[in-house]
Design brief:
It is a single chain. It is built from 6 helices and 8 strands. By secondary structure, the chain is an alpha+beta fold. The chain has one domain: Chemotaxis protein chec (3-Layer(aba) Sandwich). Strands 1, 2, 3, 4, 5, 6, 7 and 8 form an 8-stranded antiparallel sheet that branches. A hairpin with a 2-residue loop joins strand 7 and strand 8 (179-189). The longest helix is centred in the N-terminal third of the chain and has 26 residues, at 10-35. The protein is globular and about 55 Å long. The termini are close together.
């Protein structure tokens, strides 16, 4: 049974990568429906990273970032975050709302759109886990915030730092109307949850 993230080997990483691929595909379909536009999504890069490397990959601790946090519970417990650099977020919500005149203005409506997108992405990844494992997973309401990347990541670090400093870090890229976007999904799981997922997928140690 897995006792910490350091025990994950190539087999486990491959499984997490496949979950990421399925989740990304589901997310693309959901976003295409929401935007009523075609979305071309690149192959996500899925890796197990420590907190500092994840923050660095997002541009550094001081990078202004929009974040959506969702807690999950039930047979699996943890937290998932959708994170996108603020400039990218402003461009994306302009596409979502068809408002290209006030791209730099961040309104309540635009924050709500970011929250909905984060909810769709988080639900897609957790839904892929639930489908593959048969686990009963309940999602909290999403919380949206704009802050520096380091500050946003401090929330899960405080809660999950005691079980290790590793996270499932997903780098995504997608294109909407020939405009390229990059974002990240960071998934935190309790060790018991991670072990149960691997057990359900036939990867007992």
């Amino acid at each position: 049974m897995i006792k910490n993230y350091e025990e994950l080997d190539d087999r486990h990483i491959d499984v997490l990568r496949e979950i990421g691929n399925i989740g990304a595909g589901n997310a693309a379909s959901s976003l295409a429906t929401m935007l009523d536009e075609r979305i071309d999504i690149g192959l996500p890069i899925v890796q197990i990273s420590d907190f500092n490397d994840a923050i660095h990959a997002m541009g550094g601790a001081e990078t202004m970032t929009a974040g959506v946090l969702i807690n999950y519970s039930g047979e699996a417990n943890g937290m998932i975050m959708f994170l996108i650099e603020i400039g990218e977020a402003k461009k994306l919500v302009s596409h979502m709302l068809k408002d290209f005149d006030n791209i730099d203005e961040m309104t309540d409506l635009k924050l709500s759109a970011i929250k909905e997108m984060g909810n769709i992405l988080g639900s897609s990844y957790l839904g892929s886990i639930a489908t593959l494992t048969g686990l009963d997973i309940h999602l909290s309401i999403p919380y949206v915030s704009i802050d520096m990347a380091g500050a946003l990541m401090s929330v899960p670090i405080i809660e999950f730092g005691a079980v290790g400093d590793k996270v499932m870090f997903i780098e995504e890229s997608f294109m909407v109307e020939e405009t390229h976007f990059k974002s990240n999904v960071v998934m935190f799981a309790e060790i018991d949850t991670l072990a149960l997922i691997m057990e359900r997928l036939g990867l007992n140690q």
